[in-house]
Amino acid sequence: MTALLTTANWSSSHWIKALRAADPGRNFVLHGVDEYDPASVRYALTWKPPEGLLPSLPNLEVIFNLGAGVDAVLSDPDLPDVPLVRLVDENLADRMTEWVTWQVLTHHRQGLAYLDQQHNRLWRVREQPIAADVRVGFLGYGVLAQNAAGIVRALGYQVSAWSRSPKEADVPIFAGEAGLAPFLGQTDILVVLLPLTDATREIVDARLIDALARDGALGGPVLINAGRGGLQNEDDILAALVDGRLKGASLDVFQTEPLPTDHPLWGAPNLIITPHCSAISDPASVSRYVSRQMAAYERGEPLINVVDRTRGY
Length: 313
Ligand code: GLV
Fold this sequence. Notes:
By secondary structure, this protein is α/β, with parallel strands linked by helices. The chain is built from nine helices and twelve strands. The protein folds into two domains: about 1-90 and about 280-300, NAD(P)-binding Rossmann-like Domain (Rossmann fold); about 90-275, 3-Layer(aba) Sandwich (Rossmann fold), CATH 3.40.50.720. The strands form two sheets. A seven-stranded parallel β-sheet has the order 8-7-6-9-10-11-12. It has a five-stranded parallel β-sheet with strand order 2-1-3-4-5, with helices on one face. Helix 1 (about 10-20) crosses helix 9 (about 285-300) and helix 3 (about 90-110) crosses helix 5 (about 145-155).
């Protein structure tokens, strides 16, 4: 009845402590540190598990992903055919909302330009539209985007979203391939919160950037990506920032992380770079979620937030 933990670059000591506090009766072992019999492992609690680890557990029943994106788990070609549970956590969603709102406001309120003025001891008021005249479009409308959209909308922005398939929502939804160009054509600030799948890899490229609205109140489109680096073509983004087709951008995720020190994006104009910190999983909150799900599963109740492997999220 062992639950095995792998946390890659996250602090394993925090995680094991939080798990033991949330579920004191359960046997948690830490891969690479604790001795354990692979045959005893019933649950795997993972963040970026080493390839081959999950297939080596013969009695594995459920995989719990400790972050929002499951791309790193699904990339194992021998992934066992057991339910993979996504993390849906209010704490994580609220952190993402903070980051997205911060970036939307920074670009709208010209934070970079004012910082630059400050460095030059320049007192100059810049013109700007009110939020109600700025259109924010969410590319991907899952749990994280919906949470962020609620707050962005409450600030007064015009909010819409694109999703792979039509869905009921409290904002105008553009769906599917046919909806993408019309969606982009009415978006001033694009917030990318898509899962990384074969269908979305490098979706943010020159073509997508060129389809964004150019008639908006900001004087040019802004790109914000907190999904995955694999969603973006970084050469295309760099070129668009340099020649002004993008007025600004905020990137929290990159094709290679950490972003290499000699990467040209570090020097790109009007770009805010953060080190994949938009929504870090909180060990205590996530441990409670996983513990609740394991208990429910053992009572014979269905698992919730199980990944559809054909969709990839
Ligand atoms: C972080 O990148 C996550 O997927 O939660």
